[in-house]
Amino acid sequence: MIPMPPGWRLQLLAHALVLTHPEGKQVATIHYRERVRPLRRLGAIVDEIVAATPGFAAERVGAPERLLTVENEHAALVTVSGVQDGAAAQRDLGIVFGDDFFAAVGGLCLRAERRGELTALVRDLVRKDLQMLGIRRRRFEYAAPPGWAPLARDLLVEWYPPGYPRDRTVLRVHPAYPIANAPASVDAAKIGRHVRKRGGAAEDPRPRAIATPAGLRGWGYRLCIEEAVAREIVVLDDARYRYLIELSSSELGRHAQALEAVVASVVPIPANGVTDHASDLLAYWLS
Amino acid sequence: VRLCFDLVPDRPEMVLGLEVRPLVGLESFHPGAAIQRGGRVEIEGAERGLETETGWPMELVRAHLLDAAGAVVEVRLAAIYLMGYHGGLAIARIAPERFDEVREAVVQVLRSARPSFRTAEPISVGELFEMAP
Q: Which of residues 77 through 96 in chain B touch A, CB cutoff 8 A?
């Protein structure tokens, strides 16, 4: 939900709301939609919105600008210049990404001298967009192992090396778990007991300390789950989330570098920001 | 996806059509219907227990497409792949008079198959910001 910019007029449609510039729609309008499914890559969303704009023909799509909202959800802004009904126009498209949906702030500016103003406003609205998703199990950012193929199982992603299945290896990146909902402690004895309980013959794995460039700290545990397949489990923590990455392989040593690279690239989930514009939402109730 | 391979560089007329079908869940995987569509088709034989270069289970099915008079107008060599919970299919469509000449090269192409599980939905934070759909 975005705050109402002062002076803009609000119109509610079935699945969107439209804001009209104080000087009229011949200057600028902004469409806002939220909970749009399915989630798409930024380029696909931009293409879809531009194609659905009546009378608009895109001429140049700008480079995406990565943003974080005040709640520290991932977002982006893309400016598209083009022609609206024969006259030069600009679209500023701000996207806020949820786990399986997105919200879109779509500005259309028909006055050349107001383009900068609209771009700044859309960027501001994106930053202030409230999704109120809170602390939750969610994806985190990391660098994918080059050349490996991903298979998503909802929030869990499995990465397979180019030689799979002959190369019996899989790297699993679990979603980050809120610390409050994760097991209270993960240690070698607990992992060893769990494996043995499930029929594995593992000794308690010897932990190794890990510290990542982004400041995460944790442990790596190497153990044998079944004959010929070894597994390394890496558990990293910050103040709010626990990150778990595991590598199972018949040739663990050969792929250890890929695991290390992924672990080193993990970007902690940004801390939830504080919002200072909740009272702006009153405008929707009173408008 | 339809691809063309010029398998014999000095023979530009030796063009092979290769149709690669999208991976689907095994519960809705019916390769026979795809192999047999487009006319009267006779299955000539199958080689089971094969593997792709990287070890995915694969079968090769050879079929003939016949005209109304019963003459073979096309040879189809279909590779059926079992890739985890997914099934895949690629069909090479070959002129009958060229089949023996190109068979080995065609099988080599079919054995090079690897699955791509990429879908329109992004699966990682990095993918969210990709501009290529």
A: 84
Residue B124: partners with Cβ closer than 8 Å, 6 or more residues away: A139, A141, A142, A144, A150, A157, A173
Pairing of strands A28-36, A56-61: unpaired
- Whole-complex ipTM: 0.90
The whole model's pTM is what?
A: 0.86
Q: What would the pLDDT profile of A148-196 be if each residue is shown by its tens digit?
A: 999 999 999 999 999 999 999 999 999 999 988 877 677 777 777 777 7
pLDDT confidence of residue B36: 76
Q: List, for residues A7-25, the tens digit of each pLDDT value.
A: 999 999 988 999 999 999 9
Q: Which of A40, A144, A165 sits opposite B54 (nearest CB)?
A: A165
Q: Residue A30: which H helix or E strand, with range?
A: strand A28-36
Q: How far apart are CA A144 and CA B46, in angstroms?
A: 39
Amino acid at A127: R
Give the count of beta carbons closer than 10 Å to the beta carbon of residue B92: 26
Q: Judged by CB atoms within 8 Å, which residues 231-270 of A form the interface with B?
A: 267
Helix then strand then coil, in percent of chain A rounded to 5, is 20, 40, 40
Whether the CB-CB separation of A283 and A5 falls below 8 Å is answered with no
Cα distance between the two ends of chain A? 15
Q: Which residues of A touch B114 (CB under 8 A)?
A: 149, 162
Q: DSSP class of residue A116? A: H
B118 to chain A, closest Cα gap in Å? 7
